[in-house]
Amino acid sequence: MLEAMGTEWTEERFDAAAGSVPVRIYRDNVLTKSPPLVLHLHGGAFLNGSLATGQLVSTLLAKAGAVVVSADYSSANEHPFPAALQLSFDIMRSLCSRRASLAHRQSSLFVAGEEAGGNLAAGVALMARDQHMGGLQGQILLSPMLDPCMATGSFRKAEAGASGCRWADGWNRYLGFAAKACHPYAAPAYCMRLAGVAPALVLTAEDDPMHDESLKYATRLREAGVAVREHVLTVRTGWPGAYGNSVGVQPDWGETVCGHFAAFFHETGAFSH
Questions:
Q1: What is the DSSP letter of 198?
Q2: Structural domains in the chain?
Q3: Cis peptide before 188 (omega within 30 of 0)
């Protein structure tokens, strides 16, 4: 058992329908009787990323009171959509049946992700609605990659160069070919039917290239009748790269983000059991 910023985690393999997947399970030192159980999906632009780069967000979720299962879906990145999404959804279904052993039999289920993981988290929420998987209490999206066109104002303001090509390369790998960009699970920004999905927490920052698509998605969810909590950090964050670059160190915005996680858990009734 190891510790990150006061939160303990263990590493093991998790059996899902698609095979055995490496996971880290995070728990804070103090938990409620039935803490929320969160599937966390790390970033990496569908090109890389790992359990290590997902450590910061997982730790903040745990500090907010959750038991966090952070899954390394990176092996599925070798195959185009829907491989990574299907793997993520399979893991979420497994959590449904294993919640008693991981947290508590009455624990509420959440899915969370940053950047590419935010795309998958949004996709999992859509699949959970369409396949009538009961129990998903909320979706937590941080700088989610939702729009493969990358034509928003916030993307145009982002620094050009190699970093600007990273997300294009990631989208190309994930989609495989252009026609898949029309699939609502692959590119949630283009989903025409958002009603009925789980309540959402959407976090972005002023200097985040995904700022505009994040807020637009939050607006469309709200217009579809979905309960949404959103927040834009005004401090310079370096998102989304800073999620994976702050391993072992809590950044200045860490407490603010952790506070939003905790507030969202309370608003959705995750601590009411």
A1: P
A2: 2-267 (3.40.50.1820)
A3: no
pTM over 0.70: yes
Q: How far apart are CA 88 and CA 71, in angstroms?
A: 8
Q: Which helix (H) or strand (E) holds 27?
A: strand 19-27
Residue with tokens 């790992």: 50
Amino acid found at 145? M
Query: Quick check: 48 and 66 in contact, CB under 8 A?
Result: no
Rg (CA), the chain: 17
Residues 87, 105: Cα–Cα separation, whole Å? 23
Q: Give residue 272's Cα distance to chain centre.
A: 23
For residues 79 and 77, give the distance between their C-alpha atoms in angstroms, rounded to a whole number.
5
Q: Determine how many CB atoms are found less than 10 A away from the CB of residue 150.
A: 17
Query: Quick check: helix, strand or coil at residue 34?
Result: coil
pLDDT in tens, 210-252: 999 999 999 999 999 999 999 999 988 999 988 887 666 788 9
- Is the Cβ–Cβ distance between 264 and 138 less than 8 Å? yes
